[in-house]
Amino acid sequence: MIVVTRIADIHDALNGVCLTIGNFDGVHMGHAKLLQRVCDRAAAASLVSVALTFDPHPRQVLLGSAAPPAITSTEQKLECIEAQGIQVAVVLPFTREVAAREPEDFVREALVEGLSLRHLVIGYDYAFGKGRRGNFDLLTALGQNLGFTVERLDPVIINGAVVSSTRIRDMVQAGKVWDARPLLGRFHQVRGLVAHGQKRGRKLGFPTANLSFKDELVPLTGVYAVWVEFGGVIRPGVANIGKNPTFGEFEMSVEAHVLDFKGKIYGEPIRVHFVQRIRSEKKFSGPDELAARIREDIGLARMILAAPDARP
């Protein structure tokens, strides 16, 4: 997949595109339906399949610190978009000036003149531009004048409710990572680099990889059965999210113990896929009680990860 941050960088290579536009936070099953439809329509009409998104997420610009955390980093979002078969991803910088732009101008200049838009696929509730005026009705009218067609897809319903980024975010923040999987089409993950920690896990007999993480959406504190991915290999593990109350710490951390692994991976990029929450965080009387509970957690994690539907 080709990734560009300026339409000018791809303009000359395009003779016609089938496009979808959105924030695609989480690239969930609703987004997957949009992206797959774009690929199918593009292939049928000999067009280039394109997904246009923004970085940072518009709410981060408009709401600042009040914005909810993103489900996926831009890096992971692009990986998921590529996995759906999209040929070109356009990642436009989002600013307050972009937010104030009239949708008619954006469609004419960016989509039609810039990307040679022929067919547009949008979600059931998508709208953009100043006052969110760029909705299905306006886009359809613009298409009739500017030479493109518009298609609006119905929402995807899973377990009796519409799949949405908000619904997934609420699940993850409540620790319901197992329930979020059908909506995401995968387990929620946190990625980062392995950093040096206090090495308490090693002293207890359960060395952990301490994540210096960059993803925004971290599940509810507690202990989880996880898959730990590094070096091109996915291994079973147990992760703790919390502040290590047994040792009186106050900063949030994500630590993963990789089962049956004895190597050192400091500085390595790592991805932790959260499968199921085992228990809440707890303050133990001391290292011995904590070690006993960790052994129990590991036994439970092995049982959970052995299930056929727990594979990453």
Give your account of this protein's structure.
This protein is an alpha/beta fold and 312 residues long. It folds into 2 domains: 2-158, HUPs (Rossmann fold, 3-Layer(aba) Sandwich); 187-310, Beta Barrel (Elongation Factor Tu (Ef-tu), domain 3), CATH 2.40.30. Helices cover 32% and strands 27% of the residues. It contains 10 helices and 14 strands. The protein has helices at 29-45, 58-63, 74-83, 96-99, 103-114, 136-146, 165-173, 177-184, 200-204, 287-305; strands spanning 2-4, 17-21, 48-55, 88-93, 117-122, 149-152, 157-158, 161-162, 189-195, 209-213, 222-230, 233-242, 253-258, 269-279. The strands form 3 sheets. It has a 6-stranded parallel β-sheet with strand order 1-4-3-2-5-6, sandwiched between helices. The chain has a 6-stranded antiparallel beta barrel with strand order 9-10-13-12-11-14. A hairpin with a 2-residue loop joins strand 7 and strand 8. Helix 5 packs across helix 6 (136-146) and helix 7 (165-173) packs antiparallel against helix 8. The longest helix has 19 residues, at 287-305. It is elongated and about 75 Å long. The protein starts with a strand and ends in a 7-residue tail after the last helix. The model has no long low-confidence stretch (mean pLDDT 90).
